Amino acid sequence: MLRALHKFPGLIAALLIVVMTLSGAVLSVLPALEAVQAPAQPDLTLTVATLADRIGIAYPGIEQIRRAPSGQVTAFYFDAGQPGAVIIDPATGVGVRNYEPSAFQRWVTNLHRSLFLDDAGRLTAAAGAASLLVLSISGMMLTLRRVGGWRRFFSRLRGPLMGRLHVEVARVTVAGLLLSSATALFMTASTFDLLPQGSTLAFPAAVSGQTGAVPGMMALLRDTPVDSLRELTFPYPDDPTDVFMLKTNTGEGYLDQGTGEMLIWADAGAWQRFNETIYMLHTGQGMAWLGVILGLMALGAPFMAATGVILWVQARRARPRIIGNIAAGQAGTILLVGSEGGSTWGFAATLHAALTQAGQKVHAAPMSQFSPHRYSRAERVIVLAATYGEGTAPASAKGFLDRLSDLSNAPDIPLAVLGFGDRKFPEFCAYAFDVARKAEEKGWEQLLPVSTVDRQSPQQFARWGRDLGAALGQPLELAHSPAIPRSHALTLISRRDYGVEMQTPAAILRFAVPKDGLWARLAGRSLGRFSSGDLLGIVPEGSHVPRFYSLASGRSDGFVEICVSRHPGGLCSGQLIDLAVGDSVKGFVRHNPDFRPARGRKPVILIGAGTGIGPLAGFARTNHSGRPMHLYFGARHPDSDLFYGEEMQEWSTDGRLASATNAFSRTGARIYVQDALRNDAERIATLISEGAQVLVCGGRSMAAGVADAMADILAPTGSTPAMLKAEGRYVEDTF
After folding, report:
1. If one looks up domain 488-590 in CATH, what number appears?
2. Does the global pTM surpass 0.90?
């Protein structure tokens, strides 16, 4: 619900919000410019009486004096029957330049307030403000849910770059957008008389009928400082029934033009002061610095509108269209999908099509829309759930477990749960197992035992489909072809070979970055930006399932680099190892933002073995600031498997590596990388106490050995690898 509340107003009102916020940003600067250009008032004790007398001498036909919140004083007068207006120097009462209302300011103001459409435009602008208010509140709530509460509101974000940029800008600007949109709605309501109106000061019933008093004779004007003045209106010449009218920050009243006596006075009420405060908060009039800040914050709205639309388009592309989706209340099979990147929706579309072809009425929806009361005709529920990060719910499954927990009784229809994940990660399909466990606690009948699909395997999915068909009493064949992201031709420009002597061929492969034009980059059709630690997906010939390799370079390096070793029977690794310079492969980048050094200057401990050195070498290569990085690398033999050996020496010399320790398992000493860690236990414990982050890359068995060694090293300190993981200070990338 919350995501829908954020998404649809944003998509519907995106253009309107952009127009309103950009025009508002322009207007927000004007009070500050006016304050800068206004003549200074050197005499802080200057009174309205003195100022009016000075202006009256210079401009005998004075009609009105106005003081803007910026401090600018403007005099309106008649001279030989012709109207005039000048900006006044309060020190002299003489005009410094003619006052000419800005046509540009008037144009922008009309655009901002009404889109040049009078009342209809004002209502449209109000709708834009309401949409912005809803977006600000819902976005703030989504961010709080994402980061884990107010205390972590500004904590480091994880995930794809576009999504992080969207949230980062939102976190900085949401306060200003909330204030601007709320005050805009208040002012619109006031304009259409939907709010109580302040009392209007009645014109005096009786005056002296005399004329000739000058401001300097009037006690009220002598007691009123110029800083408090808003407006002083002079009586119409030769009309003894007219009066002076004074408006100040504290109230307004009428003065007799013959005696100078105050005829009527009304203090500003609480409601009037509140209205004026709202106006000031929205426009910055009287508080120019606030206007500038709000204007800068307003500029975040067009950026968020653009990134929001891009994220929506990306999600639409990633989520395949499900044809013939039946309404929840009419479906016999409810298919609930928990997906982060969108790939699980592809499997859902295949299952939906197969069940529909078999005569089933199927309703597919995100897990976040779980609503058992709507499933009036359902005979079964099937959950396809991926796992995000460290075993958490993916984006489209938010709130599912909470809704399930809130049920007094489990639905009286059977449930099947299928998890999607990658076995190289410790929390393989953890969320799917959490769903199955919670369902079991609720007593929810199982249609099938919980099952898993590793690395989007079509074969495993098809096998599960046959089991599902058997449970349904009808044949079910699931022929799924995973959607492959747009790939780019990568041409090999150099290679360095290793491992030949040990009969374990490996290589550092360096590819040229594809030359994409500006339009391709803007349209998202280029290889895009990437960093060391991200993943390069390669689809080998003879397969439609990509294999992923950790990148040892970033876009700024000017090349795409990976470390590859030939695996027995490995289709992709074999093809990569056999590449010659000039050959090309198809590849794409999958971002892996969790695996990289955290921001700051805290030490980093890099631990890897074999081809796991790739991203670690990339981190060291770009460490030009000299941040303390300590590398521990395990290989078979120094003469055969020492990846980046020469670079390690260079990086140690120029400070990019604070230390480099190698461990070789096929020499006389037979030392593994975890042994090297134990040998350096005191230094590692000290580094951890200083806030060091640990990054581990390599095979799962190596990572397990490293975790055991780190547990022994940390035991005297009372810490554990699990505790460091919870803090984001122990990150693994295993295969």
Report:
1. 2.40.30.10
2. no
